[in-house]
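Repro:
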Amino acid sequence: MLILAIDTALDACAAGVLDTDAGRLIAQESLAMKRGHAEALMPLIARVIKQSGIGFSGLDRIAVTTGPGSFTGLRVGLSAARGIALAADRPVVGVTTLTAYAAPIVNKGGDHPVISAIDARHDHVYLQVVAGNGSSLVWPRIAPIAEALEAARFGPPVLVGNIANIIAERWPTDAPPVQVDTQPAPDIAWVGWLGAAVTPETAPARPCYLRAPDAKPQKDMLRNHSQPSAS
């Protein structure tokens, strides 16, 4: 299976073509960035497709990160993935960033739980905890960092995600020791591998926000301001 993997959820703009039969990426590119995904993504995808030598018509599937992450970044990646899927008449699947962070650790095997944590600002994290075999211990949620520290009850964990170092710094001194793997964004190869393991029915390409946007939509603001006064 040939899968175009796309990730714009966090601090990278990345794409790759995974050949599952060969067991490797045959093309990839990743640019570190906090903003500017909209301008960077389509040219980057074009370069990756050219490098792969297969063309969009040669793809079997498109996989894209669905969040949690940047609201703007998620919309950019999802829109591109859906557009390519429609134009190439190929299925598109979604992969959460929390799962993509945990996947390479779970793939190694072992008994250590894996804590995936993404910065949600204001001393909160997007959080997921899985056992060494990938089974869920804490379902994806937004939570105070203090709740992430409570995952010490599951045993010595591996911390992954873009806020892993901060959680490690606050890890209780009397808790089991942690291993830390901090990355600004998930490995694009694992976005592809996870995309190969799901279906559009079980993993639709729609945003996984875990909380409402901070900014209120303009149309709602206009509607509220247009309400007649009570006087």
